[in-house]
Design goal:
Blueprint lengths: L1 H15 L14 H4 L1 E7 L2 E8 L5 E5 L13 H4 L4 E5 L17 H15 L4 E6 L1 H14 L6 E7 L10 H7 L3 H8 L2 H12 L8 H11 L4 H10 L6 H7 L7 E6 L7 H10 L4 E5 L6 H4 L1 H15 L1
Parallel strand pairs: 3-4, 3-5, 5-6, 6-7, 7-8
Antiparallel strand pairs: 1-2, 2-4
Length: about 300
């Protein structure tokens, strides 16, 4: 009840500054730097992705809750210099299809990524995920190769979900009936997007108008708000405790990167992952929030490149 009252107050305050629902222009074309835009057919759905690079270990990049391939705009082109890079829009996000089928659990997204790997016959894949994308990476690994050799040869988990925790306000609001529908309908997308990004960045000065506009554009596409609601409703995997126990069986090199000032998924979660995954390496960036690949792209890239050079 307290959450409902607080949520209602927040939305009322937002409404004071919102007079209409603004239509958004498409963001600048970023695909030249991300790679060639393609689609993958998954159970009749079109899943959008970008492919870059022609040699080296394949890397799959998975974004977080409410994000898209855009979250990897700084890393993807640089990683593609030495690797084959596949940057996916998960189901319901970015330019991928957004069906109202209720299948937006972490397990559903992991099944999609596993099917993508199988269809492309990718050898020695590095799975790299941020936030919800980290949880999808973990579950994809457990789906494909626990107890047997498989195609995943390393994991890079960036401020990854993976344990029960207090959810950030924007996920909790997306779970509240009525409010989660009226908010996106009545409020300017850029305003809402800016509030979420402020929660995700430590250095608010790095949140540019272009970043806000691009995130807001994708969040305002047809079906996007419904996909966010469905994802929020299923954000905690089924049998989570059983899944956590399986982390100890992860047998591939694992790099964990974390922003020390992450207000979305606290550093304590990163420390748990480093404890539960055998041999995992934890690197903490001071003065950094929930999306290091955006807020500290150079540090993040250098850390990942050093890890890949050492392991491959």
């Amino acid at each position: 009840m307290r959450l409902l009252k607080k949520s209602a107050l927040i939305w009322l305050l937002f409404l004071l500054v919102a007079s209409c629902h603004h239509l958004l222009a498409p963001p600048p074309n970023q695909t030249q730097s991300w790679g060639q835009q393609k689609t993958f057919d998954y159970q009749g759905l079109k899943i959008n992705y970008y492919e870059a690079g022609h040699q080296g270990t394949p890397i799959i990049l998975l974004h977080g809750f409410g994000a898209s391939a855009y979250a990897w705009r700084y890393l993807a082109p640089r990683l593609a210099a030495d690797h084959r890079v596949f940057t996916l829009d998960l189901k319901g996000f970015g330019l991928s299809d957004k069906p109202p089928d209720g299948k937006y659990a972490i397990q559903d997204q992991a099944g999609l990524v596993a099917a993508f790997i199988r269809s492309k016959k990718l050898p020695e894949v590095v799975l790299m995920g941020n936030s919800m994308g980290g949880a999808v990476s973990l579950l994809t690994y457990l789906t494909l190769q626990e107890g047997k050799p498989g195609p995943i040869k390393a994991l890079v988990l960036i401020d990854s979900a993976g344990y029960p925790q207090k959810l950030p306000w924007f996920v909790r609001l997306a779970q509240v009936p009525v409010l989660n529908t009226l908010g996106p309908m009545l409020l300017p997308p850029r305003f809402l997007t800016a509030q979420v990004l402020r929660q995700c960045y430590y250095d608010k000065g790095k949140i540019t108008d272009e970043i806000i506009a691009t995130y807001a554009y994708y969040s305002n596409l047809p079906g996007a708000a419904a996909a966010v609601r469905q994802t929020a409703a299923q954000i905690e995997p089924r049998n989570m405790e059983a899944l956590i126990k399986r982390y100890q069986h992860i047998s591939v090199p694992t790099l964990i990167i974390w922003g020390e000032q992450d207000e979305v998924i606290p550093l304590a979660v990163g420390r748990k992952l480093a404890r539960d995954i055998p041999g995992a390496q934890l690197v903490v960036f001071p003065r950094c929030g929930h999306i290091p690949q955006e807020e500290e792209p150079r540090k993040t890239l250098n850390c990942i490149q050093d890890f890949l050079k050492e392991k491959f």
